[in-house]
């Protein structure tokens, strides 16, 4: 080995040693972080994670290091919360300190910290306060929004009737209904299910979610500085996001031309009025860029989560026809076939309510939640977590808690029923997260799921194309969210309708 090679080898060894020392100093430096696996230089604990199912990897590590542990993604420390007690203590009891949004590199690259879901600090507070107030003014939690959902449920039934009982993939039909509800709130407009621009938008959103849940995006989030220079699906994600932003910007411009400041019709109108009110304010958060990102966040969250739950829920009902039969019996007894289901029916339908809750628990739609961060140095248990540290609250560890939900891997509505068959609430039911960052559309989503499911089952019998015991309900992706496998079914019109 010549002297130059020796020198180069020595430099590499020195560099690796310095990186290792740096990582160790971070573990022992500012704050006393919870224990966790020892990181490797540069890559941290990445090799200990399965990029196809990171939440499962984190649950396995919790068995070794406890309910609160530290992980290194590259050189960045992340604190993981596992189980109900740790989650409640952090997100609810210390809600203000844990209210920051943690880094999500791929989304940060798209949204640049704007909008509602991934913003922080004063920007997040102002946009969230505005969004909550505007949604309330537009009927959220009132009879008017329920009537809007009921009307869309009727349109959904008409679209399903057009399948004529033939095998169909329900993905886009089921996506159209919640999408139209959220569009009516944002744009004051609903689209026909065959509208080509509408279908294109739905396809873009579906593809976006699939890419976000792919292993490659998990790698991007772990090593963003390296991955951004490599070929991969993130480039397609950027293009899709830009196309969707262009669509929303077009809608905003249409609203600008027809705006009546004294009579706002939807969320875009309300935001434009707020922009005008604060146009002289130098640091106003109500800008065109923030408007487009906020609309995009509410549109995506309000459409995809509900449509995926509907689709996954139908797959579970096909898998368990005995459960579906009991829902039919309850619908016949409580609602009948001469009127549309309404929200007050839920109190008289404990079994159906339990099934829908169990769907959300079992589906475990966003298993690792959206990351949080601490907004200041926090004393948590016997640890000190430094300001800015990313927090991963593992929702899956709560929804699949085997003490609260015996046999959590089984789809069992009994998890939400008492011995007398009455609906049983659970503090462990956290599909919408908890604390300051809980989903602002929880009430709307729960209303939609009840009304859409009951209206579908009131009007149709579900027929599987294969034997129920052969139906596989395992998600095809478990990254950002759990995505159900593709399937077809027949919607056979009910004999009583």
UniProtKB/TrEMBL annotation:
Example GO biological process: xenobiotic catabolic process
**Gene Ontology annotations for the cellular component aspect, listed alphabetically:** cytoplasm; endoplasmic reticulum membrane
Among InterPro entries, the record links this protein to: Cyt_P450, Cyt_P450_CS, Cyt_P450_E_grp-I, Cyt_P450_sf, Cytochrome_P450_fam2
List the subcellular locations: Endoplasmic reticulum membrane; Microsome membrane
The cofactor required is: heme
Major location (coarse): endoplasmic reticulum
Amino-acid positions noted as binding heme in the UniProt annotation, renumbered to this chain: 439
The UniProt entry, under PROSITE patterns, shows: CYTOCHROME_P450 (PS00086)
Q: Tell me the leader sequence span.
A: 1-23
In alphabetical order, the GO MF annotations are: heme binding; iron ion binding; oxidoreductase activity, acting on paired donors, with incorporation or reduction of molecular oxygen, reduced flavin or flavoprotein as one donor, and incorporation of one atom of oxygen
Q: Which Pfam families match?
A: p450
Stated EC number for the protein is 1.14.14.1
Keywords of this protein's UniProt record, alphabetized?
A: Endoplasmic reticulum, Heme, Iron, Membrane, Metal-binding, Microsome, Monooxygenase, Oxidoreductase, Signal
User: Mind telling me which SUPFAM superfamilies this protein's record contains?
Assistant: Cytochrome P450
The residue ranges crossing the membrane are none
Report the sequence similarity comment from the record: Belongs to the cytochrome P450 family.
What is the protein named?
unspecific monooxygenase
């Amino acid at each position: 080995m010549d002297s130059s090679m020796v020198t180069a080898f020595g430099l590499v060894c020195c560099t690796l040693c310095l990186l290792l020392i740096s990582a160790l100093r971070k573990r022992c430096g500012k704050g006393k972080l919870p224990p966790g696996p020892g990181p490797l230089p540069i890559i941290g604990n990445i090799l200990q994670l399965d990029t196809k199912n990171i939440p499962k990897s984190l649950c396995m590590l919790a068995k070794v290091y406890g309910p609160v542990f530290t992980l290194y993604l590259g050189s960045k420390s992340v604190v993981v919360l596992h189980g109900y007690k740790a989650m409640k203590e952090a997100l609810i009891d210390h809600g203000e300190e844990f209210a920051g949004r943690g880094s999500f590199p791929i989304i940060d690259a798209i949204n640049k910290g704007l909008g509602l879901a991934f913003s922080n600090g004063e920007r997040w507070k102002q946009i969230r306060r505005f969004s909550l107030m505007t949604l309330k003014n537009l009927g959220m939690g009132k009879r008017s929004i329920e009537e809007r959902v009921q009307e869309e449920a009727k349109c959904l039934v008409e679209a399903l009737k057009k399948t004529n009982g033939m095998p169909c993939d329900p993905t886009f039909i089921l996506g159209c209904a919640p999408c139209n509800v959220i569009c009516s709130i944002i744009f004051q407009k609903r689209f026909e299910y065959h509208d080509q621009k509408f279908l294109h938008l739905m396809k873009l959103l579906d593809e976006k979610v699939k890419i976000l849940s792919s292993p490659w995006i998990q790698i991007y989030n772990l090593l963003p500085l390296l991955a951004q220079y490599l070929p991969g699906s993130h480039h397609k994600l950027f293009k899709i996001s830009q196309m969707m932003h262009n669509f929303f910007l077009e809608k905003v411009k249409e609203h600008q031309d027809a705006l009546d400041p004294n009579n706002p019709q939807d969320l875009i109108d309300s935001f434009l009025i707020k922009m005008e009110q604060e146009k002289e304010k130098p640091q106003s958060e109500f800008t065109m860029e923030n408007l487009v990102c906020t609309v995009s966040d509410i549109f995506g969250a309000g459409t995809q989560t509900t449509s995926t739950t509907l689709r996954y829920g139908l797959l579970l009902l096909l898998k368990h026809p005995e459960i579906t039969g009991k829902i039919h019996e309850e619908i016949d007894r409580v609602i009948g076939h001469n009127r549309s289901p309404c929200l007050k029916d839920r109190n008289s339908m404990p079994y159906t309510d339990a099934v829908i809750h169990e769907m959300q628990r079992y589906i475990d739609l966003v298993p690792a939640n959206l990351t949080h961060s601490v907004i200041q140095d926090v004393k948590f248990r016997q640890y000190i977590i430094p300001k800015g540290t990313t927090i991963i609250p593992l929702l899956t560890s709560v929804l699949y808690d085997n003490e609260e939900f015996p046999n959590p891997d089984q789809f069992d509505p009994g998890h939400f029923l008492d011995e007398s068959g009455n609906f049983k609430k659970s503090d462990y039911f956290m599909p919408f997260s908890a604390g300051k960052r809980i989903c602002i559309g929880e009430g709307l989503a729960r209303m939609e799921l009840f009304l859409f499911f009951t209206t579908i089952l009131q009007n149709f019998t579900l027929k599987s194309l294969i034997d129920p015991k052969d139906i596989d309900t395992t998600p095809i992706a478990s990254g950002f969210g759990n995505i159900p496998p593709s399937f077809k079914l027949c919607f056979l019109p009910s004999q009583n309708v």
